[in-house]
Predict the 3D structure of the following.
Amino acid sequence: MIHMDPKLVKRSLKLSLKNLQLSYVDLYLVHFPIPLVYEGDDTNIFPTNESGAWKAAEKWDLIETWKAMEELVDLGLTKSIGVSNFSISQVERICKVAKYKPVTNQVQCHIYHPQTDLFEACKQHGVTITAYSSFGSPGRLAIFKQAGGPVLLEDPVILKLANKYEKTPAQSPKDEVKTALRAALDAGYRHIDTAYNYMNEDAIGEVLQEYIKSGKVKREELFIVTKLPMIHMDPKLVKRSLEISLKKLQLSYLDLYLVHFPIPLAYDGNDNNVFPQTETGGWKAADKWDLLGTWKAMEELVDLGLTKSIGVSNFSISQIERICKVAKHKPVTNQVECHIYCQQKELFDGCKKLGVTLTAYSPIGSPGRPGHLKKADEPVALEDPLIQKIAKKYGKTPAQILLRNLIQRGIIVIPKSVTPERIRSNFQVFDFSLTKEEMEEIDKITTKRRYFDMSVWFKDHPERPW
């Protein structure tokens, strides 16, 4: 928006091409129809006035900006051009005089904002609509959220359809999962963590076989982890459950198999009903449970060569101690929520004494978790002032600082993302170290917040882990 002056358009794209290390882009969009004042600083992309509002330019001419965009096509710097966040009238004004019409208009579009009129009008002009925030942008910054506002992922109609097709409300297409895994493998990741409950083992298996068969990676270089679902914790079901996962993953063995949660759910014979519900909508716990019996069944999997090692997830110290007292094969790790607001110090120390490592899920605070798990006033790890201060010092992202802190504590991290750029960024944490003083500062953070609390469904269950 600061480069919408026609004299700045070409220079702006060249800056982007330099950053992207490309000679051309396939599509270049005008980000927003209102230009902001340009103060000579290319990094000050959102200049503000004294009241803190964005500072609009005093003069603007969308048509002239568009003519400058068209020149970029003629110069071969972009194959096509388009707009973003434009109204029908603005698109029409451009189409009337355009040498090259916009190929698309990228706008917010989802079930609560279907953009029907805009879609039909753009269609008449041969302009497509590209949707951003297609499932409600649950990971958007807190300042853009309103308490009590509708949450797309919790819409009753969407939930009903998701249940019908045995999908999640925001089900990532298999192609998206495959793209994410390819990006991870290409970036150097070899530890792949999934779970029966995630319903993506088959997509992961396809990519693993693609890379193994092509010689891009060897099976022995990979460390593949999946988890025993809560509906299969009956000792008689454990082996069969892993065999289902192995078939989907197209593997003959796992490197690590985890018990996903210490409380078993009722199994109704449907292997896809991973979260059976009570009449009131809560998760339906099994009538009987025996953690030690489940663990013995897990140990048999090691003896059979179906997995190299076994562990647990979301377990308490006392539960791990009970297992370790009788275990033939001790848990190698306990995978739990762990980040600056849930540092798990006591659990880490307790596990360490037992020779059990800690693996952190949600290490950056899980900004992409479903809306129903968020509260308007909750702290956001990525926005923590201390983390942002340290990130600025090292020229790193807040996510990279959060990951580095856990690594230096001796905790295994498994950040989740389906975005190739973020996947690559999360891997770039081995070229710097936090100082002892910075580690101590982070250690002293007093804010407490658990972003995932599955225990709320089992407040009175004897195996409730926290």
